[in-house]
Amino acid sequence: MQSYLVSDFLKSARLHGQFKQSIYNLSCQGNRLLSIFSRTDNRKPAMDISGMRHPYHDKNDFFLEDNIEVKEPLDLFNRWFQVVKSDTRTVEPNAMCLSTSTKDGYPTSRFVLLKGYSKDGFIFFTHYTSRKGQQLEENPKAALTFYWEHYSRSVRIEGDVEKLDIEDAEKYFKNRPYQSQIGALCSNQSFPVASRKDMEQIALRLKEKYKEGEVPRPPLWGGYIVKHHTIEFWQGQTDRIHDRIRFRRPKEDEPDGVLTHQGEDGWIYERLYP
Ligand SMILES: Cc1cc2nc3c(=O)[nH]c(=O)nc-3n(C[C@H](O)[C@H](O)[C@H](O)COP(=O)(O)O)c2cc1C
C-alpha cells in the first residue's frame, strides 16, 4: 500500500540519512503528500485510494440533447427513475441525499426516502423537530441528490421547501408498517439519548399502549415538498467528459439558442462542463 511504502521510506531515510538529498529534491506536490503520510504515520495508516476508478458509459452511449426523449425535467426524472426502479440491483432507488443549511449558511446532508413526486415537487417525511427540520424552519431551501450507480447516473434537484398539509402526513403515517410507526413515535429525532436500551424500552411501552392500527402520528412528524426550480441530469462517461444537462427557468433574453435552449412547459435547458 502506498502509505506504508512512503512511511517505510521515511523511516529508512531518518535512520541512515542516505536518502535525505532525494527527499529535498521531491516536488512540492510530493512533499505535501509525504508530510500528510508521515503526519498520520504514528496514528493509523493514511489510505491512498486515488487509484479507485470505475468505468462509466462509453462513447456509443452519450447523453446528448438530441436523445433527451422529453424536454421537461419532471417527466425526464420519471423516465430515469422508472428504469432504475424496475432494476432489482438497485435496492433503494428512492434514497436521496437531502442537503439543508443553517441560516448562516452551514450545510448539512443526510439520506431520506423520496415518497412521491409530481410537477409540484419532491416529497419526503421526517420529524419537524429534527436537525433538518430546524434548519428548514430557518432556511426553507434544499437540495436533493440521487446517485444510481448501476446506471452511472445522478440527478440533482434544488428548490424551495414547504411543509405538506397535516392530512397528507396522516394519510402516509397510517399506511406505514406498525414497526415504522412505533419507531417514529419513540424517536426524538436528532437529540441525544443515553443508550439503545432506553429507546427499546420506550418502544416496548408504546407497543403495550398501542396495538396495530392504533399508533397515533407524532404531532411534529410530517412531510415536506421540495418545489424544484433546477434539475440537473448527470451521466458519467468513461472518458471523464461527463454529460450534464441542467433544466431551469429562463432569465431575460433566454434561451439564446446557443448556450440555452427552449424546453417544454416554460423550462429551458443547458449543457454544463463536467
Ligand atoms: C437510505 C436512508 C433512508 C432514510 N430515510 C429517512 C427518511 O425518509 N426520513 C427521515 O427522517 N430519516 C431518514 N433516514 C435517516 C436520516 O438519514 C437521518 O439520520 C435522520 O433523518 C436525522 O437527520 P437530521 O439529524 O439531519 O435531521 C434515512 C437514512 C438512510 C441511510
Automatic annotation (TrEMBL):
<dbReference type="InterPro" id="IPR012349">
    <property type="entry name" value="Split_barrel_FMN-bd"/>
</dbReference>
<dbReference type="GO" id="GO:0004733">
    <property type="term" value="F:pyridoxamine phosphate oxidase activity"/>
</dbReference>
<comment type="pathway">
    <text>Cofactor metabolism; pyridoxal 5'-phosphate salvage; pyridoxal 5'-phosphate from pyridoxamine 5'-phosphate: step 1/1.</text>
</comment>
<dbReference type="Pfam" id="PF10590">
    <property type="entry name" value="PNP_phzG_C"/>
</dbReference>
<dbReference type="InterPro" id="IPR019576">
    <property type="entry name" value="Pyridoxamine_oxidase_dimer_C"/>
</dbReference>
<feature type="domain" description="Pyridoxine 5'-phosphate oxidase dimerisation C-terminal">
    <location>
        <begin position="221"/>
        <end position="274"/>
    </location>
</feature>
<comment type="function">
    <text>Catalyzes the oxidation of either pyridoxine 5'-phosphate (PNP) or pyridoxamine 5'-phosphate (PMP) into pyridoxal 5'-phosphate (PLP).</text>
</comment>
<comment type="pathway">
    <text>Cofactor metabolism; pyridoxal 5'-phosphate salvage; pyridoxal 5'-phosphate from pyridoxine 5'-phosphate: step 1/1.</text>
</comment>
<dbReference type="InterPro" id="IPR019740">
    <property type="entry name" value="Pyridox_Oxase_CS"/>
</dbReference>
<dbReference type="InterPro" id="IPR000659">
    <property type="entry name" value="Pyridox_Oxase"/>
</dbReference>
<dbReference type="InterPro" id="IPR011576">
    <property type="entry name" value="Pyridox_Oxase_N"/>
</dbReference>
<comment type="similarity">
    <text>Belongs to the pyridoxamine 5'-phosphate oxidase family.</text>
</comment>
<keyword id="KW-0664">Pyridoxine biosynthesis</keyword>
<keyword id="KW-0285">Flavoprotein</keyword>
<comment type="subunit">
    <text>Homodimer.</text>
</comment>
<dbReference type="GO" id="GO:0010181">
    <property type="term" value="F:FMN binding"/>
</dbReference>
<dbReference type="GO" id="GO:0008615">
    <property type="term" value="P:pyridoxine biosynthetic process"/>
</dbReference>
<keyword id="KW-0288">FMN</keyword>
<keyword id="KW-0560">Oxidoreductase</keyword>
<dbReference type="Pfam" id="PF01243">
    <property type="entry name" value="PNPOx_N"/>
</dbReference>
<protein>
    <recommendedName>
        <fullName>pyridoxal 5'-phosphate synthase</fullName>
        <ecNumber>1.4.3.5</ecNumber>
    </recommendedName>
</protein>
<feature type="domain" description="Pyridoxamine 5'-phosphate oxidase N-terminal">
    <location>
        <begin position="92"/>
        <end position="194"/>
    </location>
</feature>
